[in-house]
Amino acid sequence: MNAGSFGGFGGQFVPESLMAPLQELASAYEAAKADPGFQEELQTYLAEFAGRPTPLTFCRNLSADLGCRVYLKREDLLHGGAHKTNNALGQALLAKHMGKRRIIAETGAGQHGVATAIAGAVLGIPVEVYMGETDMARQRLNVFRMELLGARVIPVATGQRTLKDAVNEALRDWVTNAGETYYCLGSVVGPHPYPTIVRDFQRVIGEETRSQILRAEGRLPDAIIACVGGGSNAIGIFHPFLNDPVRLIGVEAGGRGLESGEHGATLCAGTKGVLHGALSYLLQDADGQVLETHSVSAGLDYPGVGPEHSMLKDAGRVAYTAVTDDEALAAFSLLSRREGIVPALESSHAVAQAVKAAEEMERDDILVVNLSGRGDKDVEGVAAIMGGRR
After folding, report:
1. pLDDT band at residue 338 using 50, 70 and 90 as cut-offs
2. Which of 44, 210, 323, 332 is placed for a possible disulfide with 348 were both Cys, Cβ 3.0 to 4.6 Å?
3. What stretch or stretches form a coiled coil here (predicted)?
4. Which residues contact 37 (CB under 8 A, 6 or more apart)?
5. Same domain, 263 and 376
6. 158: domain CATH number?
7. What is the mean pLDDT of the chain?
């Protein structure tokens, strides 16, 4: 593994006390990658426990509506209800091989927390999850699911009480307890080697999509769309297509509009800086202070982004755009009504962008949307928003 540089982004901007745990993690991960026993055990859990491969679903109604061939990569059907299970299972298994006796995690929308709780339960390792109080209030169902699975959810009352603050607290815990504790980071962010580890565990999404679309259509898609908060589901489906003539589109949280300043569109409106141990794009003021963010979706309510996405933005390989809260809510209803599939609010941003992208596509063009998670967790919140507008 290299020093964790993605075109100059990434790296390790951490206190000296974290250097040894990060080096231990990097060495353990390199050993696990080369260990056929580890890989076989992981593949067994992914297939027999998590339910891989997930389907690639052709959307007949949406295709007719939008005028092109629309497919959904169904990570919402993975055990736990989101792509997060791929990474959590991989890292929890790595923790087990490293002899760690405790796993900590952070979560925003709750899906990574649920996935880590699931992985800890099946592998027999206690789990504690840091979660901002704001996110706990809007994701009560996932808080209950984590506790039901045996995890301890630790409320974070500092800052904006969202994902950024939960990451801060998890890092503080790890600094103090690194000897026995494994920090299961939930996205392609943070110091090296996390962006590489999480990407590798999520690559399965794109690898499956590639073989499935070739089987279904006999050719690669014209475009792939995925939502981007930290960016793990997007990098997972994009990565196996980076060298192909496929248009890749990442969709950030436009919140109340980029001009309002109330959004989570890091790549669309951010500048280069350091957050949570890595150099990447982030939302900050002229003095380098991290700005508060807003999104209707807790999982996209984050001021930073994975360093590999920053590299892909600067290289022009992936196009990044933003979708507003209102557009995501409309897509949430559209997919539910037309295809019988309730998407996570995070995924709804990708669906909303698909509606826009289809305007420039021909009837035989193929569009794949990564449906990163299911929307059960968001139904209560969306009902409250829609009820309040009536």
Report:
1. very high
2. 332
3. none
4. none
5. yes
6. 3.40.50.1100
7. 96
Give the C-alpha separation, 50 to 46, whole Å.
Answer: 5
> Quick check: 378 pLDDT over 50?
yes
Which residues are CB-neighbours of 93 under 8 A, at least 6 positions away? 32, 38, 41, 42, 45, 119, 123
What's residue 139's pLDDT? 86
- How much is the pLDDT for 390? 57
What is the rounded distance in angstroms from the CA atom of residue 43 to the CA atom of residue 367?
28
Q: What is the pLDDT of residue 389?
A: 64
Structure tokens at 66: 């939008």
The rounded distance, in Å, linking the Cα atoms of 175 and 189 is: 17
- The strand pairing partners of 127, in sequence order, are 103
Alpha helices in the chain (DSSP H): 16-33, 36-44, 60-66, 84-98, 111-123, 133-138, 140-148, 163-177, 194-217, 232-238, 266-269, 307-315, 325-339, 345-357, 376-389
* SS3 (DSSP) at 188: coil
* Sign of the alpha-carbon dihedral angle for 139, 140, 146, 152: positive
List active site positions: 59, 83
What residues make up the domain containing 181? 19-47+84-194
Under 8 Å between Cβ of 132 and 161: yes
**Distance from C-alpha of 249 to C-alpha of 293, rounded to nearest angstrom:** 22
For the chain, give the longest Cα–Cα distance. Answer: 57
Give the per-residue pLDDT at 298.
86
User: Residue 60's CB: how many other CB atoms inside 10 A?
Assistant: 12
Give 141 or 358, the one with higher predicted confidence: 358
DSSP summary character for residue 316:
T
Q: Are residues 61 and 90 in the same domain?
A: no
Structure tokens that stand for 378 in this block: 């968001």
* Other C-beta atoms lying within 10 Å of the C-beta of residue 373: 30
pLDDT tens digits along 80-138:
999 999 999 999 999 999 999 999 999 988 899 999 999 999 999 999 999 999 999 98
Residue 185 Ramachandran class (φ > 0 left, ψ -120 to 50 alpha, else beta): beta
